[in-house]
Amino acid sequence: MNPKKFIESNKDRLLNELFELLRIPSISADPAYNSDVQACAEAISGHMSKLGLDQVEIFKTNGHPIVYGECLIDPNLPTVLVYGHYDVQPADPIDLWHQDPFEPVIKTTEIHPEGAIFARGACDDKGQMFMHFKAFEVMKDAGEIPCNIKFMIEGEEEVGSMNLEPFISEHKEKLACDTILISDTGMIANDTPSITTGLRGLSYVEVEVTGPNRDLHSGLYGGAVANPLNILAKMVAGLHDEKGKITVNGFYDGVEIVSLEERALMAQAPFTQEAFNASIQIPAPLGEDGYTTSERTSIRPALDVNGMWGGYIGEGAKTVIPSKAYAKISMRLVPGQDPADITEKFTKHFKAIAPKSVSVKVTPHHGGLPYVTHASNPAYKSASKAYEKTFGKAALPVRSGGSIPIVALFEQILGAKSILMGFGLDSDAIHSPNEHFGVFNYFKGIETIPYFYKFYAEQHSS
Ligand code: BES
Ligand code: MN
Ligand code: MN
């Protein structure tokens, strides 16, 4: 098996095939793109068939389809389930893209001198998911497939994977595996490989504050009635105290305390506050007292307003007291916190802090449990060896701040741990305008993944 050589002699095709996928605007959140999402599922299943996978099938769900295919060679070999998603975030704000988000182009950047593929979904997750298809091709080409491999690629990750849980519960046998392999996270830098050992959970709510029954003239009524926007701003501002702690009653109950030893270990990962500030052009960071930036985004929970609106936001001035004000709020959770419990606590708290002059409604959206795995996991060790082989240095274990809610459910339902071999960089602008994925990273993923299977099979037999 010589992944490097395979990549060298198939470079253009490997890029062009990914480009074809990136041209399909498979935006799961917007029903206007339903037929594109379907077309993308068909393209994925086409690739699976071309790879020679068996049982290739597009499973209908109550939402977007799940695509499955497998290569089972020997019941004595370990079985790996590859998970990824073919859906993407909306491209908005469109004006801030330097190109059509669904017409990929390669451009060099400071961080990606070999070039990066710019397109929505390039990194999250089409590019990373597709590395697994091409890694399979590498192994097939060499006639060395060391494990049984199952592929399950879904189309609703970006909208909460609501239909995936019933699917995996219903197909437990079909999806049975020893470990799950996912590339939907990042690594520290191109010369500093890392493996993600944790994901934060998520509780997402929408709040609605109602004052008067209709929008009012702000001259005739101003000063005498509660303005829901004023009130909401104050309520939201009170959700953090002066030490950066979240004030929701009971929010930190049960939060797992990470030992000083582990924190010291984490602090060894290369990070400079100055570079962090510069990378997003902020004058100074802000967060919970007593924790570093890396800790604030991994081992500690967070609460953020994602959007807030109401009243008049059009051109010019309209004198009005709005009847309603809204906000969307995300809470990132860590081990020891449960999304349903946090949502309940938030709802109670938010209603309790509202003045009598308004009424409050809280609507929960999707959520998910946090996840951690340990470097002692045999699959983790195999991944680690694979990085060492292709990067020439050991990968650092890193807990990420992002969420992939299905990962905790995989563990609960299938009883298998997930290995998060992410090849993206934080600077790749996932979910943002001008999302990109390094050509180096794409090829490095294709090169590294086959070694994971090789080492995992060896570990299994020893
Ligand atoms: N791939 C991301 C999650 C991610 C990115 C984790 C980078 C770690 C590092 C995933 O597609 C995503 O965007 N998840 C959402 C949650 C989902 C329920 C919409 C998130 O984290 O906001
Ligand atoms: Mn993703
Ligand atoms: Mn995403």
Description:
The protein is an alpha+beta fold and about 450 residues long. About 30% of the residues lie in helices and about 20% in strands. It folds into 2 domains: about 5-200 and about 370-460, Zn peptidases (Aminopeptidase), CATH 3.40.630.10; about 200-255 and about 300-370, Alpha-Beta Plaits (2-Layer Sandwich). The protein has 12 helices and 18 strands. Strand 4 and strand 5 (about 115-120) form a beta hairpin. The mean pLDDT is about 95. One manganese (II) ion binds near residues 85 and 124.
Shape call: globular
CATH A-level architecture of the largest domain: 3-Layer(aba) Sandwich
Please state roughly what percent of the residues sit in beta strands, choosing from under 5%, 5-15%, 15-25%, 25-35%, 35-45% or over 45%: 15-25%
Strand order of the largest sheet: 1-2-6-3-7-17
Low-confidence stretches: none
Give the CA-CA distance, first to last residue. 21 Å
User: Could you estimate the helical fraction of the residues in percent?
Assistant: 25-40%
CATH superfamily of the largest domain: Zn peptidases
Number of structurally distinct domains: 2
Order of SSEs, N→C? HHEEEEEHEHEEEEHHHHEEEHEEHEHEEH
The main β sheet shows up as:
6 strands, mixed
How many strand elements? Answer: 18
Radius of gyration: 23 Å
CATH hierarchy, class of the largest domain: Alpha Beta
Determine the mean pLDDT.
97
**Helix/strand structural class:** alpha+beta
- Tally of contiguous helical segments: 12
CATH topology of the largest domain: Aminopeptidase
Listed once per kind, the bound small molecules are: ligand BES, manganese (II) ion
